[in-house]
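A quick aside before the break. I want you to see a complete sequence-to-structure record at least once, exactly as it would be stored in a machine-readable document. Don't worry about memorizing anything.
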Amino acid sequence: MIKKQSNFDVKTTMDRLESVVRQRGALMIARVDHAIAAANNYMDLRPTEIIMFGNPKLGTPLMQSNQLAAMDLPMKVLAWEDEHGKTWLTYKSPKKITEDFNITDQDTTREQLESVLDHFTEIATSG
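That is the input. The structure line, written in tokens, reads:
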């Protein structure tokens, strides 16, 4: 897992991530606020949100190599607040995805996906 500390709260971090995803033409799939879902069921949860997004030009080649990669695609990025009030972004490394599904013929695609995720999450967390 890749973990980055954010300079912003969870909502702001995810707003920033969603904005860059849309601006760069990636496909925004979903945004889920787990804390609201918990509150709606009379349970407490520190701020916790997940965004799912993808780009078929990057995800499809991985799935062509092994359709089971669809278990981890589209990409998911989690923002969460720890017990000290710090906000973190966490996502599964594309390298780990290719390892988990024994994808050995898509190094260039994996590197592109790593670069995109790093860039998007740096914008979301650093300002």
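Two observations worth writing down. The mean pLDDT is 97. The helical segments are 10-23, 34-39, 56-65, 94-100, 107-126. We'll return to this after the break.
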